[in-house]
Amino acid sequence: MQELIAQVEELGIEINHTSSLVIIFGIILLTAIVVHIILHRIVLRTFERRAQASSKLWLQIITQNKLFHRLAFTLQGIIVNVQAVLWLQKGSDAAQILTTCAQLWVMLYALLSFFSLLDVIFNLSQKFSAASQLPLKGIFQGVKLVSAILVGILIISLLLGQSPAILISGLGAMAAVLMLVFKDPILGLVAGIQLSANDMLKLGDWLEMPKYGADGAVTDIGLTTVKVRNWDNTITTIPTWSLVSDSFKNWSGMSASGGRRIKRSVNIDTTSVHFLDEQEQQRLIQAKLLKPYMDSRHQEIDEWNREHGSEASVLNLRKMTNVGTFRAYLNEYLRNHPRIRKDMTLMVRQLAPDNNGLPMEIYCFTNTVVWAEYESIQADIFDHIFAVVEEFGLRVYQSPTGNDIRSLAGAIQAQ
């Protein structure tokens, strides 16, 4: 540039310091405009058209996140900085101002380019089933936060003219303040790593956390919050760190198994429990589901009574009970039900009797995890149980209702 100014002066044109600066700044500005037009109007537009026409997914994702646009702006800043160093006098105010602005520009767009690169990697990872189930969003957000802090330190050190090491060493005194300000992001970053490493939670999992009123599908795992779409279509946000510090229920294992558990009891009125007489046995043995059980049970009891029993007292004899036969019937009914899985736990058991009678618990798994189908199967089973219980001479326990009291009062008045 100095040679160009000297050649101009040889032609008899006097150029003072101000004029030379104007010329240099004009050339730098013209160069920046030309480079901008070439990169953005020609190169990037051509690339975008080819990316949109291409079937390659990674090209489309790069275009959507404007990675090359930001890299182009970074390159423009580098070119301006190089021009300022080459053409302006070292140490001059003009050189310092222009190089400082160019370096700030480069730092800013380099950071934005890095953000775009992370977005590209994240979007590409979501296309793979294995990576899409990991809480990578929170980790990437944490990396962005750390990068922004580091670039912020570099920008401040550049403006102050101090070494970044001095600023970083000075942050030690502000550690307590920084920990307080960035407590949630730091805890969220650590929690996101733990969730990913231990495979505790993935997008789409059914999460239940009563403490926060969450019961639904996980839609987003961020740096500081996890979003859950509840089954009533409300959205619950949970602090990410609370998923590590508190307990929650993840139903993904149930969904993956292909069977959902039915665990519900029907309370039997204990006053209706009795031994089966011959007439009741003959009536119940007509049921196809009960015939094998009653034949084997009758044979077993007869053999025992012949060896150990005595006609002198009913206490010396073994007999079948209506509640035991009912339990056997329910067990066979479930084993023959087309919507109940036979390869998973299946049983009908008695629980400890209480003030509400004798609980008879159904414990089995359906062959579907779809909520509506599961509820329909469960309701169908208990519809049958309530309808068939009287065939065994049993009654379902129920607290007295207003209708019972009115019937009793009417009976008393009639007497």
Provide an overview of this structure.
By secondary structure, this protein is α+β, with helices and mostly antiparallel strands. Helices cover 59% and strands 11% of the residues. The strands form two sheets. A five-stranded antiparallel sheet has the order 4-3-2-1-5. The chain has a three-stranded antiparallel sheet with strand order 6-8-7, covered by helices on one side. Strand 1 and strand 2 (214-221) form a beta hairpin. The longest helix has 37 residues, at 17-53. The chain starts with a helix and ends with a helix. Residues 11-15 have low confidence and may be disordered.
- The share of residues in extended strands comes to 5-15%
Q: How many structural domains? A: 3
Amino-to-carboxy terminus distance: 124 Å
Number of helices: 17
Give the strand line-up of the largest sheet. Answer: 4-3-2-1-5
Output the keywords.
17 helices, 59% helix, elongated, alpha+beta, SH3 type barrels, five-stranded antiparallel beta sheet, transmembrane, 3 domains, 415 residues, three-stranded antiparallel beta sheet, MscS_beta-dom_sf
